[in-house]
Amino acid sequence: MPAPSSAYTLIMRAYGPGAKVLDGTWQLVKPKKAGQG
To answer: What is the pLDDT along the chain (37 residues), one digit of tens a residue?
Structure first.
């Protein structure tokens, strides 16, 4: 997904959150720059 070259905020929305999302034990995978595998 294209992103600006300046600072920005990445927001994730979890639909139908399970218990791990609600209790904080689920961790989001860190985003990578395109072409970094």
So the answer is: 677 889 888 888 877 668 888 898 888 888 887 776 5
CA distance 25 to 2: 29
What is the CA 26 to chain-centroid distance, rounded?
A: 12
pTM for the structure as a whole = 0.38
Joined tokens for residue 1? 């997904």
The DSSP-derived string for 1-37 is ----SS--------SS--HHHHHT---PPPP--TT--
